[in-house]
Amino acid sequence: MADNKRQRARIQGSWAAPPSKGKARGRPTGPGPGSKPPSRPGPNPNAVSMTSKTPETTTSPTTKGQSDCLPQTLTFTETGPIRRIPEPKEIVKDGSYVISVEPGGEARITLTRDFLLPEEADYVFATLRDEIPWAQKQNCIQGQTFDEPRLTCWFGEYPYAYTKVRWEKNTDWNETLLYVKSRIEEKTGQTFNSCLLNYYRSGKDHVSWHSDDEPSLGSKPAIASVSLGDSRTFEMRKKPPPEENGDYTYTEKLKIPLTHGSLLMMEGASQDDWQHQIPREYHDRDARINLTFRTIFPE
């Protein structure tokens, strides 16, 4: 019977000699002092290695202290990659920026922070605040009528309309406004025949996401925006592709602090492919006036 057990153990490859009689359990059984160390057997030419060669394209499992060995660009779940919400990029330096090149073509913005010197900007702000016939228009979105959270005024050779707001032509230009218009045209080489003015009385006043893409503005309109008064953050977000069904969660976003006397130009596909807003703020903000010069075509 004992011979049969030893035969099965040899076949299974796990045979070991039984412990010698008289040895206490747990007591070392190695060679005693003065004995020679056992000789190491040479390699067995018939042995089969249990370690397979890992292909170069295979990624090793993550272990503690080795997480940087794995690619960090995408994380996968059973249903596919996890999409990360992009952080808004902030533009604070003067210059011209190409913010996208598709699908409508090249979209450009140009920031000039000190377009008007501080004393000049102070004068223009105070004059327009006191001389412009500001009005609060009513708008309607999704059947809900509301007072726009800002005051506005329109100057232009033709009427202008957006959503449910309509302005009649107004050629009685304010002289200070004409001065700013001439300065912009001299700097940019563009010409404008109209201006929409916005007066933000505090941080509660704002304008929601929109694009200036009305048909009366023509294709690829150039819009010059001058900021006066307290600084506000101008935000932009890229329109999502059709397969996103209007979901802006993962689109590119920009933040541009607009300071007293600054000029922001939006050109190319900036209205076709992007939206912009001045968000409501929940801390104290003083008044701000925004002048948006544009070219209107007869409808």
H/E element order: HEEEEEHEEEEEHEEEEEEEE
Q: CATH class of one domain, please?
A: Mainly Beta
Number of DSSP helical runs: 3
CATH-wise, what's the superfamily of one domain? Alpha-ketoglutarate-dependent dioxygenase AlkB-like
Considering the chains and any ligands shown, give keywords for the structure:
Jelly Rolls, five-stranded mixed β-sheet, 299 residues, alpha+beta
Account of the 3D structure:
The chain is of the alpha+beta class and 299 residues long. The chain has a domain at 89-137 and 150-294: Sandwich (Jelly Rolls), CATH 2.60.120.590. It contains 3 helices and 18 strands. It has helices at residues 2-12, 118-131, 175-188, and strands at residues 76-77, 80-81, 89-90, 95-100, 107-112, 138-141, 144-147, 151-156, 160-162, 165-167, 194-200, 207-210, 223-229, 232-238, 253-258, 263-268, 274-278, 288-294. Strand 9 and strand 10 form a beta hairpin. It is globular, with a radius of gyration of 37 Å. Residues 9-33, 35-39 and 44-77 have low confidence and may be disordered.
Q: What's the short version?
A:
With 299 residues, the protein is α+β, with helices and mostly antiparallel strands.
Write the layout of secondary structure elements.
Blueprint: H1 2-12, E1 76-77, E2 80-81, E3 89-90, E4 95-100, E5 107-112, H2 118-131, E6 138-141, E7 144-147, E8 151-156, E9 160-162, E10 165-167, H3 175-188, E11 194-200, E12 207-210, E13 223-229, E14 232-238, E15 253-258, E16 263-268, E17 274-278, E18 288-294
Parallel strand pairs: 3-15
Antiparallel strand pairs: 1-2, 4-5, 5-16, 6-7, 8-11, 9-10, 11-18, 12-17, 13-16, 13-18, 14-15, 14-17
